[in-house]
């Protein structure tokens, strides 16, 4: 794996998509060949799986099915987009990755971290992020930011209690993977958050 693999994680509405675009612009201007992608999604098959998982009609889905669908979408994404781009030395920035499954399915749906890690082991093999920005923002603010964005998807429709578990679950990730996780206070302005991310990336590249 020659390129740099960056992932952005955090609760719904914490500002990930906003920051990813800014980070991609910054890195492109600094001369990186950037691939910007997201999960679930990033390939034709993975986007079709996304439609099933996030269907606004909210058809009941077993948590194991949900975890396997996220992992299936990820397997295709890693094989078709992420791994080839990294091999070519590109910088991949991905909006969510395995950590989302650890937190949403492992903790939110209570499948357990180990079970979700095992499922995803097959999907990603050894393609893991070098640096993960972990956005911290309580669900009341995050979901509040999203209220103007139209109909809620299946996960966003979950009760506040579920989103609270996700928020708490994310807090524990730094302890699990201390080397690659950079915690970001996402309650600040867009520019302040961007500045922090640039500083962390520069440190990582120079280091
Ligand atoms: N730092 C910030 N302060 C205030 N509002 C913000 C900030 N960052 C993003 N927003 C706004 O919050 C909303 C959600 O942001 P964004 O779509 O980037 O979040 P997200 O984490 O990608 O959400 P999701 O995971 O649900 O897709 C948008 O309307 C965006 O303009
Ligand atoms: C990758 C992944 C995502 N999720 C959840 C998190 C969000 O609620 C949605 C994705 O929507 P977004 O607008 O693109 O953030 O799916 C999950 O539960 N498990 C995962 O592995």
Automatic annotation (TrEMBL):
Signal peptide positions (record): none
GO molecular function terms listed in the Swiss-Prot or TrEMBL record: ATP binding; dTMP kinase activity
GO annotations of cellular component type: cytosol
Gene3D superfamilies on file: P-loop containing nucleotide triphosphate hydrolases (3.40.50.300)
Entries under PROSITE patterns matching the protein: THYMIDYLATE_KINASE (PS01331)
UniProt KW keywords: ATP-binding, Kinase, Nucleotide biosynthesis, Nucleotide-binding, Transferase
Binding site residues for ATP: 10-17
Heme found in the keyword field: no
Catalysed reaction equations from the record: dTMP + ATP = dTDP + ADP
Every Thymidylate kinase-like domain range: 8-196
InterPro entries reported for this sequence: P-loop_NTPase (IPR027417), Thymidylate_kin-like_dom (IPR039430), Thymidylate_kin_CS (IPR018095), Thymidylate_kinase (IPR018094)
UniProt similarity note: Belongs to the thymidylate kinase family.
Biological function: Phosphorylation of dTMP to form dTDP in both de novo and salvage pathways of dTTP synthesis.
Protein name: Thymidylate kinase
Species, as recorded: Geosporobacter subterraneus DSM 17957
Gene name of this polypeptide: tmk
